[in-house]
C-alpha cells in the first residue's frame, strides 16, 4: 500500500488556528452572557470548567497517542492499522466517558467538596456539573473522533463542526438565559442544557465524518474489536502525554492560587493577561500541533530528513509570529487593557507584564514546537520526564519564592514561568538534537540502499 501524501504545514495549521480562535472568542461571549445571570453563576462555570478540563485530560491518555500513530501509519502506507487505531480509541474513550458521566451525575457533592466550593454555591454547582458532566460521554466521543480525523490530515472539517457547535451554544445560551424564541428562562440550568445539546449536535456530524475518514465506511461491529499490539503502541505514546497535560493543568491551578493569596487586583491582572496572551500564542500552538501531524506522517513514511528539519521550520516561523502578535498587543496596550478594566493599578501592572511577554512567548514556542515534534516520533516519555520537575520546581516553586517571600509579586510569577518555559524548551531542543544522527544517518542510509537497488521500502528506524 502506497504511503499517503504528506499534508502541507499551512493547510494543517490555519483550520486549527481558526478553530482555537473561534473557541476563544465564543467562550468569552459565553462568559459575558452567564454574567447576566449573576456573579455566582460565573464563579460556578469557572470552577466547573476548570474541573472538566482536568477530567478531559484522562481521555487524552488514549486520543493523543492514537492521533500520532494514525498519522504515522497513514504516512507509512498502513491505512488498515490506522483505521483499527482510530476505532479502538473511540471505543475506549466512550467507555471512560460513560464511567465519568455516571460519577458526575450522582457524585457531584463529593467533587464540590473536594474543590472547596463555597456552601452558598454548592446547589448551583450541583445543577450545572451534573448536567454538563452527565454529557461527558458525548465530549469523549467528539474528542476521540475529531482527533482521529484531524490526524488523517483533514483539519478543516473538525473546524467547521467546532464553529457550528459554538455558534449553536451561544444562541441557545441566549435563548435559555433570556427566555428568547419561546423557550423557558432557565438560568444556569439552561446554560448546562445548551452545552449538552450543542455537543450532541456536533456528535452527529463528527460520527459521519469519522465513519468515512478511513476509506470504506466504519461499521458498528468494528467497535468491538481490540488489537493488543496496536493498543500497547497507543498507550505507550499516550500515557506520558496525558500525565504531562495533567501536571501542567494542576500546576497552573496552584499558580493561580498563589496569585489569589496576593489579593484581588493581582488575580484580576493575571486573569486579563491570560486572555491577552492567548491571542499571542494561539497561532504558535496551532502551528506546533500541525507540525506534530506533519512530522508523524513524514516519520511513518520514512522521510526522516524532512521530518527532522520540519521541526525547525515550524519553530522559526512560530517565533516570528508570536513576537509579531506580542508587538501588536504592546502597540495598542493601553487601549486593549482599558476595555477590560478602569483600575489604574491593574492597567499599569498589565502594561509592565506585556513587556515580559517578549521573553515569555518565544520560550513557549520553543517548548511547544519541539515538544510536539518529539511526541510525533514517539518520544513523549522523555518530554514528560523533563517537564514534570521543571513545572513544579521552577514554574511553581520559583514563582512562589519570588512572589511571596521575596515580595516580587506578579513579576516573580512571570520570572518563574519564563524560566520554566526556556528550561523545558532547551531540554527538548537538546533531545531533538540527539535524534539528529539517528534520523539523518538513517535517511542517508535509505537513500544509499535505494540507489543500490536493494531497498524493499520497509526499512524501519526505531527511536
From TrEMBL:
InterPro entries: MATE_fam, MdtK-like, YsiQ
Membrane topology reported for the UniProt record: Multi-pass membrane protein
One protein family per Pfam: MatE
Subcellular location: Cell membrane
Spans traversing the lipid bilayer: 12-29, 41-64, 85-107, 127-148, 160-181, 187-205, 237-259, 279-299, 311-332
Domain of life: Bacteria
Chief subcellular location: membrane
Keywords annotated in UniProt: Cell membrane, Membrane, Transmembrane, Transmembrane helix, Transport
PANTHER family, per the entry: MULTIDRUG AND TOXIN EFFLUX PROTEIN MATE FAMILY, NA+ DRIVEN MULTIDRUG EFFLUX PUMP
Name this protein carries in UniProt: MATE family efflux transporter
UniProt source species: Paenibacillus lignilyticus
